């Protein structure tokens, strides 16, 4: 009986190790990860945690929920944008979810490669956060509460409707 339980234990441990290895065995890495929310302060993003999978950072500014996304583009640059579409934000569904290697607007269905994030203002793009609107060090990206406060208007109907 001990031998049987021992073998079962070894098999169970092996199965758990393989399940935890996920990405290494052909499964897609976890996407659409929403980080812990912060309220009424600067948003500080740790550069070390940013990868090709977009991270979503919720921020509550004076009662309005905003969300910033950060992702590493294929060229290795870190891109930041508000998680709302410049055209669709008023619909309440103008936010993005990652599907594979692209972000998809949940209102219009437009798809954006990670290399497009944070580059263009206007049109149906994620609302960019340009270098002038953030402070970047070797380890962090800081987006000021004041800048976040200025963006509240594009989030008044966000994720509603």
CATH class category of the largest domain: Mainly Beta
Low-confidence stretches: 1-28
Shape: globular
Beta percentage is 25-35%
Radius of gyration: 19 Å
Element order: H for helix, E for strand: HEEEEEEEEEEEEH
What structural class results from the helix and strand content? alpha+beta
Our count of helices gives 2
Distance between the termini: 60 Å
> What is the CATH fold-level name of the largest domain?
Rieske Iron-sulfur Protein
Which key terms come to mind for this protein?
single chain, 161 residues, alpha+beta, 2 domains, six-stranded mixed sheet, three-stranded antiparallel sheet, 2 helices
Task: Provide a descriptive summary of the structure in words.
By secondary structure, the protein is an alpha+beta fold. It folds into two domains: 1-28; 31-155, Rieske Iron-sulfur Protein (3-layer Sandwich), CATH 2.102.10. Helix content is 16%, strand content 32%. It has helices at 2-21, 145-150; strands at residues 33-34, 38-39, 43-46, 55-61, 64-72, 78-85, 96-99, 102-105, 111-113, 126-128, 135-136, 140-143. The strands form three sheets. Strands 1, 2, 4, 5, 6 and 10 form a six-stranded mixed beta sheet that branches. β8 (102-105) and β9 form a beta hairpin. The longest helix is centred in the first third of the chain and has 20 residues, at 2-21. The protein is globular and about 40 Å long. It starts with a helix and ends in an 11-residue tail after the last helix.
